[in-house]
Amino acid sequence: MANGGNRPIAPIRKLIAAVLGTLATFIVLFGLGMTSWAIVALGVALLVLAVALGTVRGGGRTWVVGLGHVHSASEPPTQYAFGRCELQLVIDAPGLPPRSKKIIEPRVPVAKWPSLGQALPVRVALNDQRHVRVLWDEVPTHAETAAAAADLPPEYADPDPVDEVLIAQETPPWADRAPDDDFRDDFPPAPDPLLDDVTGLPDEREPVVVHHRPGRPVVLEGQVVEPTSTGPLPRRATPAPRPPAEERFDPVDVPLDDPDAETPPTPEELDEAIFGPAGDEPAEVATPISGVGITLLVTDLDRSLDFYRDLGFAELDRGNGNAVLISGATRLVLRQVTGAAPISRRLVHVNLEVDDIQAAYERLRGSGVRFTYAPRVVNRGSKLEVWAAAFRDPDGHGVALTQWRTLADA
After folding, report:
1. How far is residue 356's CA from residue 341's CA, in Å, rounded to a whole number?
2. What are phi and psi of 98, to 5 degrees?
3. How far apart are CA 294 and CA 399, in angstroms?
4. pLDDT on residue 316
């Protein structure tokens, strides 16, 4: 907070004090010349009042520093470095309710000209919220804002620096392996419980070459540790002969399909075989934007809720001074502010798309909505045209019923 008791005296007070002091001096001299002490006392009193106006400051105000969100701003001059700016701000200060305030700044640098949605540092009087001052010395220029965005540290230049920090971990043992190196021989084998008691196994064994014969196997190279069986190898069983009667079979004539008798497929069957059944719709491709929401500043929340409920919106949520309405995939946020100025239709315009604009127009007109104009074509391209019927909500926001039609349908 800051105290405004040390603020400078207004120039108009200095001018009034100078004029009153000159008049008081003349009255004192006139009273002395006429030896009238009453006139002299009147002149002295006026002189004291003039001195008080020129030197004594008024009672200080208590200020609080907050933010002013730019809702609308006039266009900057193109040929001068300073200009007169008309601002519509939504004041957000600690300890004070949100309030919409229109201020006029007579001398604003073009390099610091505010844009829609920008947050400006402001100073608001606690005892009288009508006194708002923008702290232009603390507002950065457009060049400084661009330079600050360009001077970000290198770690913030990557797309997802926070995710890299959160998932940082030690390198796993298999990180340096080649993709085709799934098995490696440099690791010791797993212990075998069956071989724990066996000691003295030779590291290398001599290969044994055995030639199998019908009588018995013959060792050509090496020495066999385990004795081999000396019995003859088993012979393959000979199948029993089948009687001649069982080997007979009667030939069966199976008619083959005539290729000329097959009917060719229809175009619909070909399309179904290539593209699938007609009822199967292709899966929707995920898009980065799933919907569009609108936020409107209103002066009477209950009145606006009743108005938009009549248009077809349903209340989804409600808080202190705000409400969320929904209709299909569209969400409308209503936020109540006090003292909001009338909204220019060029800045805010809400389009409500309907399937039958004439039926929606007749329904709302019958419920008491006053339309600016009936359904008509407001935009036409090479393939589409837009039909619209416009009206306004209780706070002056421009609203229109719209329907897209192809030129072939029209």
Report:
1. 34
2. -60, 140
3. 12
4. 86
pLDDT at residue 7 in the model? 57
Torsion (CA) 111, 117, 122, 125 in degrees, nearest 10 = 150
Q: Which residue has the tokens 């001052």?
A: 133
DSSP-derived secondary structure for 358-401: HHHHHHHHHTT--BSS-SEEEEE-SSEEEEEEEEE-TT--EEEE
Q: What number does CATH give the domain 291-341?
A: 3.10.180.10
- For residues 401 and 363, what is the distance between their CA atoms, to the nearest angstrom? 12
CA atoms within 13 A of residue 120's CA, in its CB half-sphere:
29
Report the C-alpha dihedral over residues 177, 181, 186, 187, rounded to 10 degrees: 80
Q: Say how far apart CA 395 and CA 390 lie, in whole Å.
A: 15
* Nearest in space to 324 (alpha carbons), one of 308, 348, 340, 310: 308
**Alpha-carbon torsion angle 76, 81, 86, 91, nearest 10:** 110
Contacts of 374 (CB under 8 A, 6+ apart): 361, 389
Query: What backbone torsions phi and psi does residue 150 show, to the nearest 5 degrees?
Result: -80, -20
Run of H or E residues at 25: helix 11-33
User: How far out from the chain centre does Cα 154 lie?
Assistant: 24
DSSP state string for 70-130:
EEEEPPPPSS-SEEEEEEEEEEE-TTS--EEEEEEEEEEEGGG---TT-EEEEEEESS-TT
* Domain 343-410 class in CATH: alpha beta
The answer to whether 354 touches 389, Cβ cutoff 8 Å, is: no
Alpha carbons within 13 angstroms on the beta-carbon side of residue 286 total: 1
CATH number of 62-147: 2.40.50
pLDDT digits (tens, 9 = 90+) for 363-393: 999 988 889 889 998 877 788 888 889 888 8
Q: What is the spatial distance between Cα 90 and Cα 100, in angstroms, rounded to a whole number?
A: 4
Residue 295's closest CA among 368, 194, 384, 395?
Answer: 395
Instruction: Quote the DSSP letter at residue 185.
Output: S
Torsion angles phi and psi, residue 367, rounded to 5 = -85, 0
Contact 81, 109 (CB under 8 A): yes
Which segments of the chain have a pLDDT < 50? 1-5, 157-168, 345-346
pTM, rounded to two decimals: 0.32
pLDDT at 168: 47
